[in-house]
Amino acid sequence: MPRVKRPAPVKPTPRPERVAAFRLGISAESRAAFFLIAKAYRIVARRWRTPFGEIDIVARRRRDLVFVEVKARDRLDDAAESVTERSRQRIVAAAEMWLAHRPQDAQCNIRFDVILVAPGKMPRHIVNAFDATR
To answer: What's the topology of domain 16-130?
Structure first.
């Protein structure tokens, strides 16, 4: 008996505000990546996903391996306030998974930075914004 081909399930159309937020995030991450490149960092990965969450940017400069959280809001101060304890825990857990998959990177100086992005403003790079113990 011939197999009946079933139609693929239809994905629901995302809400317009979700699409706008996604595009804003991608744009902010691109601005942050270019900003880091201008500061002599090499981008190792973008949007690296784990079961714990996503690391926006992984960058390297000399012996430093930097896990970067990018936050975009209308104002830089609002972006700074949006870095929560939960987001810090998520990026630390994801970074631990990165290091588990790449043990050679454990020899690097590990750092957690935040880059704040707002329209019409230069990105603000907060070096060593938090550590893994908090």
So the answer is: Trna Endonuclease; Chain: A, domain 1 (3.40.1350)
